[in-house]
């Protein structure tokens, strides 16, 4: 107990309460209210059999989208404000007769921001790869994940209860 503290309670032991003067001296970090933060996460609800080049992956099941910024019909996220955003995308693939391999791109306004490669040559397993990127963005920038524009695709994109193909993002600041 320090000088200036008030003792309050019901006689069963003191409770210490800071005085208003002490409260004003307490430094608290500035935080954005979590309910105001922009976040989205969506996954694919089905398999994509032998997707073609430059095909947008439409993650059609939203698990989080607190500002309605992700469109589950077009597979696109539109930045609601200027800021620094983080994105993560995970792709799971299985084999066809020629193996399972493919490259996937995270796109911002038709420009490649990140590329991942998924590859399995023996067709004995399924493969999963994830990409992560932090991007300075402007309000209205559009983000989506697609198959590579020129790398040949072999295999199927999988998403089920054994592993989800997904796309998530959030505003960092």
Describe the protein's architecture and organization:
The structure is a single chain. This protein has a single domain, classed as Jelly Rolls (Sandwich), CATH 2.60.120.40. It has one helix at about 20-25, and strands spanning about 5-10, 15, 40-45, 60-65, 70, 75-80, 85-95, 100-110, 110-120, 125-135, 140-145, 155-160, 165-170. The chain has 1 helix and 13 strands; from the N terminus they run ββαβββββββββββ. The strands form 3 sheets. Strands 3, 4, 7, 10, 12 and 13 form a 6-stranded antiparallel β-sheet that branches. A 5-stranded antiparallel β-sheet has the order 5-6-11-8-9, with no helix packed on it. It has a two-stranded antiparallel sheet with strand order 1-2. Helices cover about 5% and strands about 45% of the residues. Strand 5 (about 70) and strand 6 (about 75-80) form a beta hairpin. The two termini are about 40 Å apart. Residues about 1-10 and about 25-30 have low confidence and may be disordered.
Number of strand segments: 13
Number of distinct helices: 1
Tally of distinct domains: 1
> What order do the SSEs take from the amino end to the carboxyl end, as H and E?
EEHEEEEEEEEEEE
Estimate the strand proportion: over 45%
Mean of residue pLDDT values: 82
Which stretches are poorly predicted, pLDDT < 50 over at least 5 residues? 1-8, 26-32
Tertiary shape: globular
Largest sheet descriptor:
6 strands, antiparallel
Name the structural class: mainly beta
In the CATH hierarchy, what is the class?
Answer: Mainly Beta
Helical fraction equals under 10%
At CATH level 2, the architecture is: Sandwich
Radius of gyration: 24 Å
Organism: Mytilus coruscus (Sea mussel)
GO cellular component, one term: extracellular region
Keywords: Secreted
Region (Disordered): 1-26
């Amino acid at each position: 107990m320090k000088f200036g503290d008030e003792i309050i309670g019901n006689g069963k032991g003191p409770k210490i309460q800071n005085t208003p003067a002490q409260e004003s001296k307490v430094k608290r970090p500035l935080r954005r209210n979590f309910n105001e933060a922009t976040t989205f996460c969506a996954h694919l609800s089905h398999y994509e059999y032998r997707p073609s080049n430059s095909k947008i992956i439409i993650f059609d099941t939203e698990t989080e989208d607190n500002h309605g910024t992700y469109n589950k019909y077009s597979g696109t996220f539109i930045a609601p404000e200027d800021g620094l955003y983080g994105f993560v995308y995970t792709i799971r693939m299985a084999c066809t007769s020629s193996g399972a391999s493919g490259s996937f791109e995270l796109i911002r306004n038709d420009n490649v921001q990140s590329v991942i490669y998924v590859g399995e040559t023996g067709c004995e397993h399924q493969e999963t790869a994830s990409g992560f990127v932090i991007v300075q963005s402007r309000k209205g920038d559009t983000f989506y994940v697609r198959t590579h524009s020129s790398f040949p695709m072999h295999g199927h994109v999988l998403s089920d209860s054994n592993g989800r193909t997904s796309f998530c993002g959030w505003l960092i600041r």
